[in-house]
Structure formats: structure tokens, C-alpha cells
Amino acid sequence: MNNLLGFIFLIAMYFGLREASNCWDQKVEIQNRLGPGRILKVGCSDSPNTTHWLKFNENYLLSSGQRRQNIFANKKRRQDIWVCHIVHWPTKQPYAYDLMAELGSRLPPCIHGFRSWIAKVDGIYYEHNKIKPGYRLLGWKKVDTNTIEN
């Protein structure tokens, strides 16, 4: 009987501590810093039929509360990955990139924090926990106008 009570206590502690951990409170943000008058088109796997058009200085936020809608869950590493297609048109030629924005593990040890992907004219920058300055991670790729839906 004592072993059963000890086992139940351990199970309760495991689930209680898991709920108390803030691994579930994680956010990924996509920011438009392309310049005044420039629009950033964002389409992510959290809502595959929805396109977001971000004006200059607008943000699009993906949070851990949207995990149930995410179709790209990595079961082995217990993390969720969103694939976001971002496009901008500095000229008639569109520039695009497919980002893989991931939230860290849902179970401890987890990578806490707020991740920002910042679209600028010269490339895509990354910040973690709003530690500035972000560093340039990716360059824009020219894409064929026929492959982009306007």
C-alpha cells in the first residue's frame, strides 16, 4: 500500500511540475521592417488558408496556444514547427523565403523565450528574447512571379 501511495505521489508530482513549467509559454513573431509603404505577405502552417499582409512595423505572432492547429509537430523532439512563406516586392520581381519557425520542447528542459524573425530590405534577421541587435540570418531569394499568388 505504501508503494502504491508513493507511486501515485510521483505521478502527481510529474504532471503537476509539467503543468507548472513555462515551456508552454513560447512565442514566435514575424516583423515587417522593410520600410514605409512596403508590404510583407506572410502565410504560415498554423492557418494554411489564411494570408496576412503586414504593413511597415506590423507584427504577426505565433504562440504556443496555437499548438493544436499546427500540422508540423516533430514528435521525436517534442516541439512544434511552423513553416512560414514570406514574400515582398521591392520591384516587380518578388523576393521570398520559407522560414521554419520552431517552438522549443514542450517538456523540460525547454528553450524558453520569444523568437523574432525580422524582415528587412537586405535579409531576414533573428532575435531571441528581444536581445538586440538581431543578427542577419538569411538573404532574400528571387522567385518567379508565376509561383506567387497575389
Q: Report low-confidence residues grouped into runs of 5 or more.
A: 67-74
- Tell the overall outline: elongated
Number of spatially distinct domains:
1
- Using the 3D structure, state the CATH architecture: Sandwich
Number of strands: 11
What's the helix-strand series? HEEEEEEEEEEE
Radius of gyration: 19 Å
The pLDDT mean sits at 74
Q: Give the termini distance in whole angstroms.
A: 67 Å
3D structure, described in words:
The chain has 150 residues and is mainly beta. The chain has one domain (24-147): Immunoglobulin-like (Sandwich), CATH 2.60.40. 13% of the residues lie in helices and 40% in strands. The chain is built from one helix and eleven strands; from the N terminus they run αβββββββββββ. The chain has one helix spanning 2-20, and strands at 26-32, 40-44, 52-54, 59-63, 73-74, 79-88, 95-102, 113-120, 123-128, 135-138, 141-142. The strands form two sheets. Strands 2, 3, 5, 6, 7 and 11 form a six-stranded antiparallel sheet that branches. Strands 4-1-8-9-10 form a five-stranded mixed sheet, with no helix packed on it. A hairpin with a 2-residue loop joins strand 8 (113-120) and strand 9. The longest helix is centred in the first third of the chain and has 19 residues, at 2-20. The protein is elongated and about 75 Å long. The chain starts with a helix and ends in an 8-residue tail after the last strand. Mean pLDDT is 74; it is low at 67-74. It is found in: Secreted. Keywords: Secreted, Self-incompatibility, Signal. One of its GO terms (biological process) is rejection of self pollen. Pfam families: Self-incomp_S1. Its main location: secreted.
